[in-house]
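Reading a protein record of the kind used here takes only a little practice. An example makes this concrete, so a full record is given next.
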Amino acid sequence: MPADGFVPGNRLLAVLPADILERLRPELETMPLRNRDVVQRIGREAEHVYFPHTGMGSIVIHMEGGPNVEAATVGNEGMLGVSYLLGDTLATEETMIQLPGEASRLRIRVLRAEFDRDERLRTLLLRYSQLLMGQIAQGSGCNRVHPLEGRCARWLLSTHDRVEGDTFPLTQAFLALMLGVRRSGVSVAQHALQQDGLIAYTRGQVTIIDRAGLEEIACNCYGIVRDRFDRFFYNASF
């Protein structure tokens, strides 16, 4: 099935050398990302990686006897499925779409062939993989140590960075999944943020009202991860 190119918007694709992008372009297929879709399912072979232009996906860890936990989020700054490019394609984590949008999809075998062929692409994606591992490690420590209200603010800010406008869909049940806590805890934290005039929440929609105030409440993990990505893209030139 012929691909149809891609819609500009993914920062990782944007920093690829022009000749590499031209070789990949015929294989890139634009596709919708639908809320709650699972694009890489545990126990199945992953066939594609995804470069979001809008929307956002989560790497979700299934925990026996407890709530599932989000390990990392990926939006227009990255790629869903980089681990399957580097090794076994049998999915060991679930990749779920948490905000609808659009992405470029690429077959893993095509990207792996270019990865093996071109050192520039290999260097870029290995650096991105290191960055993603750092995000996962930071999130793990954050979920263990930091108060729920600060973690909630961090997640809202990182989502706000990846969407157009100040309003996006988000239910308390889904945020509880992303933070690995009970819905009742999220309800209390979200209510506190709303009472402080930082956000508005109604009918499954969150609106960021006072971003600066939200940044003051958020734990420092938000700034640490954001600055790492900014430095990565600033230095990603060939």
Remarks:
- The mean pLDDT is 88.
- Residues 119-145 form the longest helix (27 residues).
